Amino acid sequence: xxxxxxxxxxxxxxxxxxxxxxxxxxxxxxxxxxxxxxxxxxxxxxxxxxxxxxxxxxxxxxxxxxxxxxxxxxxxxxxxxxxxxxxxxxxxxxxxxxxxxxxxxxxxxxxxxxxxxxxxxxxxxxxxxxxxxxxxxxxxxxxxxxxxxxxxxxxxxxxxxxxxxxxxxxxxxxxxxxxxxxxxxxxxxxxxxxxxxxxxxxxxxxxxxxxxxxxxxxxxxxxxxxxxxxxxxxxxxxxxxxxxxxxxxxxxxxxxxxxxxxxxxxxxxxxxxxxxxxxxxxxxxxxxxxxxxxxxxxxxxxxxxxxxxxxxxxxxxxxxxxxxxxxxxxxxxxxxxxxxxxxxxxxxxxxxxxxxxxxxxxxxxxxxxxxxxxxxxxxxxxxxxxxxxxxxxxxxxxxxxxxxxxxxxxxxxxxxxxxxxxxxxxxxxxxxxxxxxxxxxxxxxxxxxxxxxxxxxxxxxxxxxxxxxxxxxxxxxxxxxxxxxxxxxxxxxxx
Length: 495
Hints:
Distance between the termini: 38 Å
CATH superfamily of the largest domain: PDZ domain
Strand order of the largest sheet: 13-14-15-16-17-20
Strand content: 15-25%
Helix content: 25-40%
CATH class of the largest domain: Mainly Beta
CATH topology of the largest domain: Pdz3 Domain
Number of strands: 20
Largest sheet: 6 strands, mixed
Radius of gyration: 23 Å
Shape: globular
CATH architecture of the largest domain: Roll
Structural class: alpha+beta
């Protein structure tokens, strides 16, 4: 409901909106450059115009309630950046706008960097360090290695520097994104951590031995931007109607100021913008060696564990697949239990949200309804929720919905990336000259409203729901392709 835009990502209808960069035989691959062949004065004017556009969008369209920075402070920082425009490179321009965004402390607010120069691997940080957890075939021998430094700078110091420019609901949200930003070399150039994207030396550790490896980044300076609009698609219209119906249900149950607010929200639905822009021609990686259990592909699946009297819903994305809509899948899930009741006694339902980064909150409503029916049928039912650092946006909202609706709920895993209060109804815009894409929330959502007893003071202060029990995977679990967290829950249920 709150994050409809991500649900709509599956609907691709593109119309060209302009080029990020024109082809030029003299392209300097070492640095992000927006405008080839133009003098400094013209370039500066164009970037200042981009800043003014960004400022107007944030002041006029971005939600106002969930902010850690005032309008005046925001305008001051924009003004300072404009005055310094001649002294910074294009890479630094991206970094400095991102830095301004970080003051909002909002997970949905960010630039979608075009990723024109990226390292050929994925990173993930565990308690004992940062590791490569997927890598292109050329360097496969270094998969699952610990990263010690990049171009002579310790990975710990790089992480601290990158942290400065990330906007996140909470510190766990920021920690999650750091690993992605590190491999995007244009950010490292903009932060002055490296000076040359073509020469990347990484010190790694594997089997207690250190290696100095020269990695060849993937570089593509010929990136275009294209625009996708979903306001006229049938799927969008359907989703909007679901959104309206869900708010109407809340209105019926509310009164006073809360009812008034919901009624105002309802009136605004038709005015909400849901636009997606895409970078075409990005430097995509070809990595297929991430362990499947740690990189689920399907949006939703279920597993049965008869010995543990358990069923597991792996709910990985909050959108409905065309081949099997989620409402049909939800009915199938519980019908399977009922049809096999002579063989199965399902007293435990495990809802796995560890990899759910969002979509449309309305998608999950059908499962909630079916679960409520089954709870009335089975008085022994216990509900277990698995969460992790990827759980964000509508994925986080699914956790709150379960926690509000059912009493016997236990949450396991890592701290969530999504906040207890956050922005929603996310859309995108684009800077007219540099063609940089950014996302922002149009509304504010506070999950403590009428539900403060569901959260501790510490959770509200840190803007994060803390699991009943912290369970974390290790790099060894990745190496062994072992789902330690799920195994642990199943073992406890069995006992």
